[in-house]
Every structure is written in C-alpha cells, then in structure tokens.
Amino acid sequence: MDHEISRLIASEAKRQQDVLEMIPSENYASLAVREALGSVLTNKYSEGYPHKRYYQGNRFVDEIEDIAINRAKKLFMVPHVNVQPYSGSPANAAVFFALLQPKDAIMGLKLSAGGHLTHGHPDITFSGKYFASSQYDVEEDGMINLEKVAVMARTVKPRMIVVGTTAYPRVYDWRAWRQIADDVGAYLLADISHIAGLVVGGVHPSPVPFADVVMTTTHKSLRGPRGAMLMVTDTGLTKDPGMAEKIDKAVFPGLQGGPHDNVTAAIAVALEEASQPSFTTYAHQVVKNASVLAETLLNKGIALTTGGTDNHLMVIDLRPQKVIGNIVAEALEVAGIVVNKNSVPHDSNPPFYPSGVRLGTPAITTRGMKEEEMKKIGSWIATVISEVSHYRLPDTKEGRLGFLSGVKKELQVNNTLLNIKDEVGVLCKNFLVP
Ligand SMILES: *Cc1c(COP(=O)(O)O)cnc(C)c1O
Question: Is 220 noted as a catalytic residue in this protein?
Fold first, then answer.
C-alpha cells in the first residue's frame, strides 16, 4: 500500500462526494466498472485482435474483447466495432489515418465554437498539421448554420467532415450532415463522445446509419471507463467494404501497441449497464435536468449560448456581466460547484480568459438528483455569478499579473460563497456517489 497516493485517492473520493460535479464530460463510473478497471487484466499483453494475437495466453482476454464488441454492436446497431483506442483523441487520429492521405482536405467545427482539438485545430494538433483543415463556425447566436456549412463544403471539397462537439447544447441533424457530405463525396465522421449516453438512452438521434464512422469516448455520458470505441456503419461499409479493416489496422499496428484489456473489460461492463432500462431512465433524466437547470438560469437573467439546451449541457454567456469565466468557475468551486471556464461563440477574449462557463448534468444525475435539486442549483449559480460580477479583467499584461491569484484569495473568504458551500454540502450528503 502506497500511503502517500492512497491518502490522496481517499481525499479525491471525498471531494467527488462533497461537491456538485458539473463538468459535462465527467461522470461517475459504477463500482462494477471500476472493479474491472482495477483487475488483473492490467497485467496482460494482447497485441492484435481476438483470436489473432501476437502473444500467448489470451484465451480469456479474447472472450472479454468479443463480448465488449458484441455488446457495442447490439447497443449502437452497427456491423463493426473496435474497442481498443486508448481514448477519444487517438481514436479520431486512427480514423484520419485509416481513411485519408496526408494533406487531404477536412472540415470540422472550430475549437472556439465548441469543436474538439482533433477536429482540425490548426498548427498544434495532428489534425491541423498533417491535413488541410478548414473550420466552420457557429452563428452569432451560437447555432450551426447548415446552409453555410454546405457552401463551405462545396468550396473546400473535403475528403472528410467531422461532426461532434464539446460545448454545443443542441441536437445534430445527422441526415442533413449526410446530405452535405454526399454532395461533395466526403466521409462523415460522427464524434458522439459527449452524447453517446443520450444516443443509447434514446434522447438524441443516433448518427447510425448516416455517418460512415462513429467515434465515441466511453467515459462521458456513457458512464464507462476512460477509453473510446470506433464503429463502422453499414453506410461506411457499403461505400468501402474494406473500411472496417482499414480502421482496425490504423488503431493497431498503425497507432497503438497492446490494448488495455482492463479497460476493454470495463467497457463491456459499462455497455451492459447502458443496455438496461434504468439507463434509458437515466438518460431521460439527464436531459430533463439540464432543461430545468437552463430554465432556472434563464429566469434569473443569466444568458445561455443558443438561448438554452436540448441535451446534457449548457454554456453560460457572461458577456452581459462583463466578468470572465475564470472568476465565475473559481467562485463556483469555492461554493462547491465544479464547472469549467469556456469560450462563448465569437468570444473577443482570449481562450485563457474566456467569457463563459460550461456545465452539465450527467454526473449529478447519476447521483439521483432531479428537477427539484436543479432549481436549487440554478439559483445558487445565479447568486454566485451576481456575487462576483463586479470583477474586471485588467487590460494590460502587467495588470493581469497576480490578478487571478488575488481574486482567488478574496473568493476563498467570501461569506456568500461559503454559505452556499454549506448548503451544497447538505444536498450532497443526501445523494451518494456510486
Ligand atoms: C472528449 C472528446 C474527445 C477526446 O477524448 P479524450 O479521451 O479526452 O482524448 C474528442 N472529441 C470530442 C467531441 C470529445 O468531447
């Protein structure tokens, strides 16, 4: 037993129980998932795929990976699944390397509008460095304008269009995206990392069969271990019967070595959990909770990008208050509510000092919280925002030096925030984490 680390893990476990985790990409995996993750499977090497390994001793690992694959196929209704990607970013990389040549044109949503780094962010990512990336944006109101995307596609003629975001609170019209891709002969990659649990639970349309390839992380609304899956649809296989093999080869040996068999087992467990009726109930409640939370905030005069939400997340636009997301996120944490700062559409502030915060309901819904709790939480958040909305980011570089740490010190002794923290603590005691 490593006392130094186990003490810190125990502290983290207590923190996760004592606060409202509202970062929309986070969730609480079940004990069964965590047991698989912490199992002896971590000892094994299994390069290759089930029944075609480069190592001996994979009898049971083969069965486990087969089960994970079959559960995913059934749940998402796809003919081919790869459960080996280490996480979402390498999974997206595998799709790019499987289906494209270096310098091929791609299109994805801008990071500042809620896209992911791996969707073609220029200069600093594989997707922007090795491919000719053109990025679409959202409108002033935060919505994606499909007509504009279609015009851009006709100009750019991308080989692949990536759809999926980290901060978009609305539903994707997959059929329309397919149309845009078909018009220019592009592959359509649906990245449903954030919404996979909603898709499984029937509260967001599935990209199957419209997309050629579907990528999802397994640790967000799907509530599994950290990992990812790549799914090839019938649409993809019809276009290119070799697509499944190309994807598999890009994952291993293209980008990765041995799969993390403990993660594969934990994915299998999470997929079984997600196939239960209770998960459908969960997914519905996630969306219901987000909608009540959004309504509560709007009623308190808080602005949300796109004016609300259809899914599990929302982005508060702090431009009316003129306070930066950093300070609101810091203040909320003092009050026991954990969110992240986030850019808003067409943010005039730099990404390190964005004008918004992003929050969502997957984790607190796992704890069993419902509409009543969302109303409380919404009014606490509104109070916190008004408590800190007088802070202004200094204009000069010199002025900014030490500004945030100074504000942080003040927030830590702010009574309004500390009183909310006490109330949050009481609420959290009534909703245990798994
Ligand atoms: C989280 C996420 C990823 C990346 O996943 P990691 O596991 O953090 O690498 C990719 N795309 C989208 C849309 C995501 O939300």
Answer: yes
Give the domain-ending residue among 233, 251, 274.
274
Ligand 1 mean position, distance from CA 236 (Å): 22
DSSP string, 249-292: HIIIIII-SS--HHHHHHHHHHHHHHTSHHHHHHHHHHHHHHHH
Does residue 45 have an active-site annotation? yes
Options 44, 73, 226, 370, the catalytic residue: 226
Residue 166 domain flag = yes
* Distance between Cα 394 and ligand 1 center (Å): 33
Cβ–ligand 1 distance for 119 under 6 Å, the answer no
Mutate which of 119, 121, 166 for ligand 1 pocket (most atoms within 8 A of beta carbon): 166
Asked, for residue 179, whether it belongs to a domain, the answer is yes
Do 125 and 229 have their domain in common? yes
Mark whether 221 and 307 lie in a shared domain: no
Q: How many domains does the chain have?
A: 2
Q: Are residues 198 and 281 in the same domain?
A: no
230 and 288, same structural domain? no
Mean pLDDT by 10 residues, the chain (434 residues): 96 98 98 98 98 98 98 98 98 98 96 91 92 94 96 97 96 98 98 98 97 98 98 98 98 98 98 98 98 98 98 98 97 98 94 96 98 98 98 91 94 98 98 96
Q: What is the CATH number of the domain that holds 360?
A: 3.90.1150.10
Q: Are 258 and 83 in contact (CB under 8 A)?
A: no
232 and 340 housed in the same domain: no
The amino acid present at 147, given as its one-letter code, is E
Q: What are phi and psi for residue 22, nearest 5 degrees?
A: -120, 20
Please answer whether residues 127 and 133 qualify as being in contact, where contact means their C-beta atoms are separated by less than 8 angstroms. Answer: yes
Is 130 labeled as catalytic in the residue annotation? no
pTM of the model: 0.96
Q: Is the CB of 26 under 6 A from ligand 1?
A: no
pLDDT, tens only, 2-12: 999 999 999 99
Say if ligand 1 is within 6 A of residue 89 CB.
yes
CATH of residue 69: 3.40.640.10
Residue 47 bears catalytic tag:
yes
List, in sequence order, every residue forming a beta bridge with 342; answer none if it has no partner. Answer: 356
* 290 contacts 360 by C-beta, under 8 angstroms: yes
Give the structural domain span for 250. 31-274
pLDDT digits (tens, 9 = 90+) for 79-105: 999 999 999 999 999 999 999 999 999
- Final residue in a domain of this structure, among 230, 257, 274: 274
